[in-house]
Design a protein that fits this description.
By secondary structure, the chain is of the alpha+beta class. It has a five-stranded antiparallel sheet, with helices on one face. A hairpin with a 5-residue loop joins strand 2 and strand 3. The longest helix has 20 residues. The chain is elongated, with a radius of gyration of 14 Å. This is HypC/HybG/HupF family hydrogenase formation chaperone. Belongs to the HupF/HypC family.
């Protein structure tokens, strides 16, 4: 199953690449912004899938999505269903 993840831009590397922070954790990914109609700015929330930013997200929508993903991961962790458990 594939999952696109909301991520916040924390650094612009150049016009087509940026570093994004996934969720509230320390994980940083480098993603291409070449599919977006306009370059992102630091603080923008993006939907990232397979290394590509697919679209910008409204900040409220992004926070709601991240909260739902966190809740889902917490539930899986409690039942021992996370990968590697």
């Amino acid at each position: 199953m594939c999952l696109a993840i909301p991520a916040q831009v924390v650094e612009i590397l150049d016009n087509t690449m940026m570093k994004v922070r996934v969720g509230n954790g320390p994980t940083l990914l480098t993603a291409s912004a070449m599919l977006l109609p306009e370059p992102p700015v630091i603080g923008d929330y993006l939907i990232v899938h397979a290394g590509f930013a697919m679209r910008k997200l409204d900040p409220v929508e992004a926070r709601e999505s991240l909260a739902a993903l966190h809740e889902f991961a917490t539930a899986l962790e409690k039942t021992g269903q996370l990968e590697g458990q």
